[in-house]
Amino acid sequence: MTVSGFTFNAFSENTYVLHDATGQCVIIDPGCYERAEQEALRSFIEEQGLQVVLLLNTHCHIDHVFGNQFVVDTYKVPFLIHEADLATLRSVPAYAPSYGFARYNPAEPTGFLTPGEPVRFGQTELEVRFAPGHAPGHVVFYHAPTSTVIGGDVLFQSSIGRTDLPGGDHATLLASIKSQLLTLPDDTVVYPGHGPATTIGQERRTNPFLK
């Protein structure tokens, strides 16, 4: 499995395309809002000859969901989130204009993720791990064969997700990190929702929030 990343929108959000040798791929957290950002994502998929089969959200804060409807309209694929984040997703249209995003076009999920039930595409299987605290229905996607986790806004390089947004809870987030991420091997690469990639081992040793 290969991870390709893009940084989109005013929040510098990381969008990921996961693809394997079959050419099938999933899009995770499409943050593309401007037309140029949408075209960058579309062009990459076309140039790589990829077939989009699924849209996933780690969680549903505004910066991670801008491109959901674009992906659904363009590729006609299922769209999955954790059910506990449905209210988070449905709240975005009410506040998007106040952030300057009046053209946000909301999408409704077609189904829900269940922790412990894998997500499959091509020859790839992703483990769904429930990691609330930053958002009520936050999940992360772990791929053991490549020691990779798509972590959303749970764990960052030398930081952790904020917990001052609706549904956030600091103690819950720390418990999620300890049970769902720090239980992974040290060489596991964490692809976060913002900023550079890191590893579980580096964050275990140096992250000041985990001391």
UniProtKB/TrEMBL annotation:
Full protein name: MBL fold hydrolase
MF term (GO), any: hydrolase activity
Record-linked Gene3D superfamilies: Ribonuclease Z/Hydroxyacylglutathione hydrolase-like
Keyword entries, A-Z: Hydrolase, Metal-binding, Zinc
PANTHER family linked to this entry: HYDROXYACYLGLUTATHIONE HYDROLASE GLOC (PTHR46233)
UniProt keyword Transferase, yes or no: no
Cofactor(s) in the UniProt record: Zn(2+)
Domain Metallo-beta-lactamase: 12-194
SMART domains membership: Lactamase_B
Xref: CDD domains: metallo-hydrolase-like_MBL-fold
UniProt xrefs under InterPro entries: MBL_Glyoxalase_II, Metallo-B-lactamas, RibonucZ/Hydroxyglut_hydro
A Pfam family recorded for this sequence: Lactamase_B
